[in-house]
Write a structure and sequence with these properties.
alpha/beta, binds magnesium ion, binds inosinic acid, Rossmann fold
Amino acid sequence: MDEVDILFDREAVTRKVKELGQIINADYQGRDLLVVGILKGAFIFMADLVREIDLPLQLDFMDVSSYGDSTVSSGEVRIIKDLEYSIKDKDVLIVEDIVDTGLTLKYIKEILHRRGPGSIRICCLLDKPSRRKADIFPEYVGYSIPDRFVVGYGLDYAEQYRHYPAVCELKPSVYQK
Ligand code: IMP
Ligand code: MG
């Protein structure tokens, strides 16, 4: 594990996810939730988060990919896997691993808005506000972090490291090779 430094260990992440769950429980009292996970990065966070939510709840998933150069987010995304169910009049909570430029979520939000949901909010484990290019303000944020490349707890670098239990910073030497 000398390619990474631990930023938030598993215990810290577990506590944070519990906190987010409690806030979501309070905010959505008396309502049903449709939780939409953005694949693949959100899968571990979402699995833990929904188990902290004590409300009637349905799950669905969406997978998107950026057009063009994968290292530069263009904001134009292609839907690889769309939702299975209608979101009409539903309270949609989008769950994402990390918001970086915000361009991906801006696009997703626009697509979902056109389908007439009751509401749409965003819950992300990590947020890099200094990198923002789109006006996306997640309602629920686990940790705000500086501009570092992070992996683990679902997040990848070239599809590696997703299974690491902690949120780690990837040493620049790994991706600057
Ligand atoms: P955005 O459109 O720039 O906000 O892109 C967000 C997406 O970029 C996330 O869903 C991640 O898949 C990916 N991403 C951004 N920063 C990181 C990071 O530090 N580690 C891993 N993936 C990241
Ligand atoms: Mg992602």
